[in-house]
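User: Some background: our group keeps a shared notebook of sequences we're curious about, and every so often someone picks one and asks for a predicted structure to add to the entry. Today it's my turn. The entry only has the sequence so far, pasted here. Could you supply the structure so I can complete it?
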Amino acid sequence: MLSVTTSRGLRKTKVSLVAAGTTVDFRVSHADAVRVKSVLKQLILEAHPPMMARLGKSLVSNLTGSQPTLSTWILGGLVAFFALMFAIVGGFPAILVILGMAALVTGVYAIAGRRPWASLPARQTVVVALAASLVFFISGGVVAAAPGAGDIAVAEQPTASATPSASPTPTPTPTPTPGPEFSEEAPVDPTTVSAPTEAASVVAIDTGSTNTTALELLATIPVKGKAAKTGYERTGMFGSAWIDVDQNGCDTRNDILARDLTTITLSGTCRVMTGYLVSPYTASPIAFVRGQDTSAFVQIDHVVALSNAWQTGAQQLTQAQRVSLANDPINLLAVDGRSNAQKGDGDTATWLPSNKAIRCGYVARQVSVKATYGLWVTQAEHDAMTRILGSCTGEMALTSSFTPAPAPVVVAPPAPAPVVAPVPDPEPAPAAPAPAPAPVDVYYENCDAVRAAGAAPIQAGSPGFQPKFDRDKDGIGCDA
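Assistant: Of course. Here's the predicted structure to add to the notebook entry:
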């Protein structure tokens, strides 16, 4: 019994001959292995043509099974080429798919009875190829379904190459990632400043209504479900963006940039050209530079989004109140553009800043805005606000500069004391009449004597009167 096995290495082919229980191993070059095959085939055919022809065919197949042919190299190269192209275009999932297709074609080719390009025995090729194709296809589908999988390979590709020269090779500059863009909620500042048609207006009666902690103020806000968003339109319902509601000559966006940024430079009296911001939402620093591709990196966020306000009571406000809400400084913060885009119109229940240190102040602003403009909160929003403010119960609410000051308290002057008429001093008791002097006897001889005494005319009853003095009997004597 003669059996021959071969195994190909990098440079030599190992040939094992087994005959009559004896094994002979030797290594020859790949070219010599082909010649050994030819010699053994000739010997087998000459020894017993009919029988040995069949044995020789099997033996020759065994001897040549590990010999790669030109088609092996061609097809292998094509597989590698397409795998590379798919890797550049579609990433790692595409590599798995192209390998799966190659394995599937190999298996089908072997099932058809043809020797496969991989120079493996047909049955073994079918099993290996079909199993490999299944594994590659499943793996490719799983990887492709992973979020961002298709972008991994593309992101890793170089975006620029330097041309060799005598000067130092410059470092390739990667393509910049597209930055945030302005939105309807946070648009760019207008080219011209517009004044409102009506004065600023709020629902709160006076500033005293928000002069309390945010947690206590939250308890006064109604809890309801959201209304439909039907009819919401930013410009139509809340006025043109960044109207100069405070009438200081600057649009609202530049007012907030000037308030929240540091080390700013201005063009004119209002337009902020550069500045430095630490975004309250992320605590990340941003160097603001005005420009077509850079201005949107700093945006003005409505702490209570306008569409959220529309669904929680702003539909019942007047136009002046909605315009004030859209431009009220307590409802506005300069933030990084990416956080503003991520927030959208979310409320406390659906979005909070990643910077936990600002959450109490952020929620206190939302509560203040809702109370100032008579809006309500949903149950989920109320619960989320309560949870956040529960960790900072002393956080104070904010008061809008548009809220009227309390009416001065008029203190009535004290009523004048009643005028009390002075009590007159008691009148002295009337003096007792002096006692009548004791009668004095007066005697007049005649009327001449009466006249001489100065008593004429003398009346009847007077001292010294005598009837003879009254000749005409009229009660008066000495009158003639």
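Suggested note for the entry: The chain has 15 helices and ten strands. Residues 122-145 form the longest helix (24 residues).
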